[in-house]
Design a protein that fits this description.
This protein is of the alpha+beta class. The protein is built from 10 helices and 15 strands.
Length: 369
């Protein structure tokens, strides 16, 4: 936002201010004050002209200036009603030398996720890409992805949605209790097959050399005020889970929380672990070298997943598609990082691990990555 325009908003937020007083306070002409007030009105701010001066009576629901107003983080926001891909635009800005710029859109027409999968991005969502120039070494850039996942999860929880993080880059919402709270678009049984519904995803792109990072583009896609009928199978939205949210405030909270974490990189992994849906789960991770199956027991200091395999060893997985697995005898339950065993008859011994067949409960679906 233009620096003088931001100063005008700050002045108006405390009450009526006359044009001459604004001009004197800001060190500009009265004509310049009028020009900035008109520009703010065009951006959606409701500013009334009264006898005692200008009064700010309304803030736009969404948009660049709206998000910047009251934002407690050093980001400039470039807003688009519709765009092909916020990541594509962010890469253009990165090539021009931009830093701490957020490309934000109401709708994407060419969004994509991991492995170049299509990413559905209808109007009403939060589609954002951050242009960053971190001082981190390339091996630790993955911490930014983890920080973004924590930031989205925390903002969703503040909005009343029980979100958690699925390794490596998804934010999920736990299943509702069996049929007591049926989703408007999906049955409880269908949801139970996945273990959680996808709310958000994160895509990180980087350019640099072996020992330095030139820039990072961090793409964040959140199904915010998206109706159930516009969602792909296996997905959910803040609106579908809890009701429509204030997208302006939601984006602000994501950016503010992310800014806190990037300033304290040692806090990122502990925060991620506390919000993890994957740790403690039996998983299958598809990697270029084959599938890794076992219990997810930890993440490293750069976010790699540590899996205790069935052969007794440990494998560290830096990238791959992760499925949560569970025994077929597990009763439907609210999804957690650790699922308790079901009750058994005292006359029936517990099944051995080799007798338990496994089925996927949280799988990537085409069109969501």
């Amino acid at each position: 936002m233009h620096e003088t325009r931001a100063a005008v908003l700050d002045a108006l937020s405390s009450g009526p201010v006359t044009g001459p007083d604004l001009a004197e306070r800001l060190g500009v002409s009265r004509a310049a004050v009028w020009k900035h007030v008109e520009a703010l009105r065009e951006a959606g701010f409701e500013i009334e002209s009264r006898e005692d001066g200008y009064v700010l009576v309304g803030i736009p629901e969404f948009g660049g200036e709206a998000v910047e107003y009251g934002l407690d983080a050093p980001f400039e926001v470039e807003f688009h009603e519709t765009i092909g891909s916020t990541n594509d635009r962010a890469r253009e800005l990165a090539g021009e030398g931009a830093e701490d710029v957020v490309v934000l859109a109401d709708e994407q027409t060419g969004g994509r996720g991991r492995l170049d999968r299509e990413w559905s991005s209808p109007s009403g969502g939060v589609w954002a890409s951050l242009v960053l120039r971190p001082s981190l070494p390339p091996a630790r850039v993955s911490l930014l992805t983890l920080a973004a996942a924590v930031a989205v999860t925390d903002a969703a929880r503040e909005a009343g949605v029980a979100a958690a993080i699925k390794w490596p880059n998804d934010v999920l919402v736990s299943d509702r209790e069996e049929s007591n709270e049926p989703s408007s678009a999906r049955s409880a049984d269908d949801s139970a097959e996945r273990g959680g519904r996808k709310l958000a995803g994160i895509l990180t792109e980087m350019e640099g050399e072996s020992n330095r990072v030139s820039w990072v583009v961090l793409g964040v896609g959140v199904n915010a005020n998206v109706p159930a009928e516009a969602l792909h199978e296996g997905a959910t939205s803040l609106q579908d889970e809890f009701g429509a949210v204030d997208r302006r405030r939601f984006v602000q909270r994501v950016l503010e929380r992310f800014d806190e974490l990037r300033e304290s990189p040692d806090d990122v992994v502990p925060a991620w672990k506390e919000r993890s849906a994957t740790l403690g789960q039996r998983v299958r991770v598809e990697t270029p070298g084959g599938a890794v199956v076992g219990e997810a027991v930890d993440v490293t200091d750069v976010g790699a997943l540590v899996v205790q395999t069935d052969t007794g060893g440990r494998e560290v997985v830096h990238a791959g598609d992760c499925e949560h697995l569970r025994p077929v005898w597990a009763y439907p339950t609210r999804w957690r990082s650790r699922t308790p065993s079901p009750p058994r008859s005292p006359h029936r011994p517990p099944p051995s691990p080799s007798s338990r067949r496994l089925r996927p409960s949280c799988r990537h679906r085409p069109g969501r990555s």
